[in-house]
Amino acid sequence: MAENNVKLFFNKLDYLKNSSDRILIRSNLVKNFLGELHGVNILDIGCGDGSLSLQFLNDSNHLTLIDISDKMLEKVKDRVPSDLSDNIRIINDSFEAVNDEEQFDVIICVGVIAHVPVVEALFEKIAKVLKPNGILIIETTPNPYPIGKLLYPYYYLRSLIAGQLPKYNKNRLKVSELMSYASNMNLQHEKTVRYSFPLPGMSHWPQSLKLRYTLFTLNNAFVSRFGSEHIFLFKKN
Questions:
Q1: 93 and which of 69, 97, 168, 215 could share a cystine (Cβ 3.0–4.6 Å)?
Q2: Residue closest to 26 by CA, chosen among 57, 47, 3
């Protein structure tokens, strides 16, 4: 049931509009983390509209994009050049559909942890299909402290009044928990970037202003320490 609710949530496509600032920044961060890639096999779990991984689509890379939202994958298909269609595989399913025997040089898993039914199963799958010396880029959004605690009542009441309470409970994986999973998977932590925390009324801001604000939370050394989004780069030993 929870998986169906997740699919319904992302099929509305409101996520793309309301999160365009974060999607752009995530895409740029992934590009900065990985640089130029050639001759690699990439898996994008919970790919959305493909913004994070399609930038690496070329005649030598092979991409597997998987998402439970068929509407999101329609966006992906619209963005794939016809001459590179043989270099991409699109799967409309959960991450569990990835064959355990497959091996990937790079796995991108951003904006996913909050929405999976069982976090442990996600990490087990990643551990099986990530090659030795492979790269994992993964994101978690634990409640930021103390900002998250202060703002939670506001967002809860706003959603309650609007009749938009979530249909499922999102996972709030702590950084310490993520690091524990990574250690068990023999992953070496290479880098972490933090940015973004929502402000009251921010959903009504113009997209250009939201982007400027999100960039500020990324680039300001002090403010980024309070960022609610944590994106990690790991390398498998």
A1: 97
A2: 47
**Is-cis flag, bond preceding 81, omega within 30?**
no
Domains of the chain: 2-236 (3.40.50.150)
Using CB atoms within 10 A of its CB, is residue 96 exposed (0-12), middle (13-18) or buried (19+)? middle
As a whole number of angstroms, the distance between CA 220 and CA 196 comes to 11
**Each residue's pLDDT tens digit, 197-226:** 878 778 788 989 999 999 999 999 999 998
Q: Which residues contact 128 (CB under 8 A, 6 or more apart)?
A: 100
Closest CA to 139 of 92, 76, 202, 182: 182
Question: What's the pTM?
Answer: 0.90
